[in-house]
């Protein structure tokens, strides 16, 4: 649903997005990151994706979005209590480098 809202252009002024305990998993987070990477949430300052069963594949999608230049204004990221392992965090670190 959030990915659809992003792609529909309805979240252009959204500064804070919190998805807590929605079980979006890798597929949902990947879809969200794909929509965000298209510049559909340019004002996003805060992204909270906790307790959503996101793993390495979802984190790779997030890293790809970062590497593509999305979320340039992002200041706060909360991703705790997911299933992200070393591979996902390495992709994240590489995107920040």
Which stretches of 5+ consecutive residues score pLDDT under 50? none
What does the overall shape look like?
globular
Reported for the largest beta sheet, the result is:
3 strands, parallel
Order of strands, main sheet, comes to 1-2-3
State the secondary-structure class: alpha/beta
Percent strand: 5-15%
Give helix % range.
Answer: 40-55%
- Multimer state: single chain
What is the total tally of β strands? 3
Radius of gyration: 12 Å
Distance between the termini: 31 Å
Total DSSP helices: 4
Average pLDDT rating: 91
Q: What is the H-and-E element order?
A: HEHEHEH
Summarize the structure in words.
The structure is a single chain. This protein is α/β, with parallel strands linked by helices and 97 residues long. It is 43% helix and 13% strand. The protein is built from four helices and three strands; from the N terminus they run H-E-H-E-H-E-H. The protein has helices at 2-7, 25-37, 56-67, 86-96; strands at 16-20, 46-50, 76-78. The chain has a three-stranded parallel sheet with strand order 1-2-3, with no helix packed on it. Helix 3 runs parallel beside helix 4 (86-96). The protein is globular. It starts with a helix and ends with a helix. The relative contact order is 0.20. The model has no long low-confidence stretch (mean pLDDT 91).
């Amino acid at each position: 649903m959030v990915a659809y809202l992003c792609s529909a252009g309805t979240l252009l002024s959204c500064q804070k997005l919190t998805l807590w305990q929605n079980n979006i998993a890798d597929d949902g987070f990947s879809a969200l990151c794909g929509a965000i990477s298209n510049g559909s949430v340019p004002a996003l300052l805060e992204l909270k994706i906790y307790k959503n069963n996101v793993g390495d594949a979802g984190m790779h999608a997030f890293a790809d979005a970062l590497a593509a230049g999305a979320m340039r204004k992002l200041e706060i990221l909360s991703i705790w209590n997911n299933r992200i392992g070393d591979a996902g965090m390495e992709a994240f670190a590489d995107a920040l480098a």
